[in-house]
């Protein structure tokens, strides 16, 4: 009897030990799995995406060197890859509020504000944009090249001036600043740009520039921030096709460009140029590329210009503005790092606001090497 009790006690002890071991091991294993899972989840949450450093450098907000800019309504610029739209939720919500298949809101100022803040390209919309009520046919070529178009070709609600007569006269009558203030006056300074004898060594003429290449090899190109497209018109008269990028900064620049019979490109300076590599013969920009652009963004821009120019293509940097030793210490090294060959390089003082400000202009004609341009 005693032996039987001892055996039963031993079996009970053994069973209890096994159950305890099973409980401890199961609990510990389950907790370990749960802990590991939590650690993995936490790690996935905490770790930042592994993005290329150049992508981060390009898409990060960049402070404008000259501070707040009223055209951008900001003191910084977001270079555009489209995703910047999601940051501008209030404006984006307004822009995307419309009746499907109906008329779009009359919101040119809002759409331009989104573009300039980096929401580029803008989302597509399923509505019809505002258009002139009493539109007329454009003037035929070549009359349209140097004739002010009809007021009926524009929706004027977004602009201070409500007709072309006001725009033509604002250079004389209007106080304060406006982008390209006098360029709607085709009988004024616009009629003399890039032709005849140069006013100074900074003023290259179109014929001088074309003469640096074999005849007929400059055929297509782009004017960045080209105002009312007088450069494109001059080139068209020489059988060269130029697209003109321009915004509508308190004036219907894109409408005016199209009415003149040349092609407007409604993109900001932040956008990657919409051309394939090694395709354009010439790129020109006057005044727009200057020290108001964040230096790193400007570096990206000049490399993008280099990218789309064909080997042997020309980059005409026309009246690049800077101050003091910026040209020597910042912008000359920046331009030289890209790989252009200097065809012409002219530096002069900008004196219209006083010599004491030490303001400088650079006009340069640069060539992408014909051979070994990579």
SSE arrangement:
Blueprint: H1 2-46, H2 53-59, E1 62-63, E2 76-77, H3 89-95, H4 108-116, H5 164-173, H6 206-210, E3 220-224, H7 230-236, E4 241-245, H8 253-259, E5 263-265, E6 280-286, H9 295-308, E7 309-323, H10 326-338, E8 341-350, E9 359-367
Parallel strand pairs: 3-4, 3-6, 4-5, 6-7
Antiparallel strand pairs: 1-2, 7-9, 8-9
Task: Tell me what the structure shows.
Belongs to the methyltransferase superfamily. It comes from Salvia divinorum (Maria pastora). The chain has 374 residues and is an alpha/beta fold. The chain folds into two domains: 53-116, no CATH class; 143-367, Rossmann fold (3-Layer(aba) Sandwich). The protein is built from ten helices and nine strands. It has helices at 2-46, 53-59, 89-95, 108-116, 164-173, 206-210, 230-236, 253-259, 295-308, 326-338; strands at 62-63, 76-77, 220-224, 241-245, 263-265, 280-286, 309-323, 341-350, 359-367. The strands form two sheets. The protein has a seven-stranded mixed beta sheet with strand order 5-4-3-6-7-9-8. Strands 1-2 form a two-stranded antiparallel sheet. β8 and β9 form a beta hairpin. The longest helix is centred in the N-terminal third of the chain and has 45 residues, at 2-46. The model is unreliable at 1-48 (pLDDT under 50).
């Amino acid at each position: 009897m005693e032996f039987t009790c001892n055996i039963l006690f031993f079996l009970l002890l053994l069973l209890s030990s096994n159950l305890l071991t099973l409980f401890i091991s199961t609990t510990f294993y389950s907790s370990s799995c749960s802990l590991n899972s939590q650690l993995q989840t936490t790690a996935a949450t905490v770790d930042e995406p592994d993005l290329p450093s150049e992508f981060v450098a390009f898409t990060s907000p960049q402070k404008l060197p000259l501070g707040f800019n009223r055209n951008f309504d900001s003191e910084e610029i977001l270079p555009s890859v489209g995703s910047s739209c999601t940051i501008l939720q209030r404006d984006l919500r307004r822009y995307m509020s419309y009746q499907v298949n109906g008329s779009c809101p009359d919101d040119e100022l809002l759409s331009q504000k989104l573009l300039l803040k980096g929401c580029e390209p803008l989302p597509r919309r399923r509505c019809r944009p505002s258009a002139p009520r009493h539109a007329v046919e454009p003037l035929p070529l070549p009359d349209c090249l140097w004739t002010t178009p009809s007021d009926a070709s524009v929706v004027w609600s977004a602009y201070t001036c409500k007709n072309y007569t006001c725009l033509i006269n604002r250079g004389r009558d209007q106080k304060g600043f406006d982008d390209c203030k006098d360029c709607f006056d085709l009988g004024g300074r616009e009629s003399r740009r890039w032709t005849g004898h140069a006013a100074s060594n900074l003023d290259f003429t179109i014929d001088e520039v074309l003469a640096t290449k074999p005849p007929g090899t400059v055929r297509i190109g782009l004017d960045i921030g080209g105002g009312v497209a007088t450069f494109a018109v001059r080139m068209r008269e020489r059988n060269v096709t130029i697209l003109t990028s321009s915004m509508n900064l308190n004036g219907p620049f894109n409408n005016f460009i199209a009415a003149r019979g040349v092609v407007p490109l409604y993109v900001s300076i932040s956008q990657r140029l919409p051309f394939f590599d090694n395709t354009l013969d010439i790129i020109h920009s006057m005044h727009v590329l200057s020290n108001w652009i964040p230096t790193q963004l400007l570096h990206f821009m000049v490399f993008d210009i280099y990218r789309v120019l064909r080997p042997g293509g020309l980059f005409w940097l026309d009246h690049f503005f800077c101050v003091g030793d910026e040209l020597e210490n910042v912008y000359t090294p920046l331009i030289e790092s890209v790989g252009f060959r200097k065809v012409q390089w002219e530096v002069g003082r900008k004196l219209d606001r006083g010599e004491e400000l030490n303001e400088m202009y650079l006009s340069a004609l640069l060539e992408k090497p014909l051979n070994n341009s990579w």
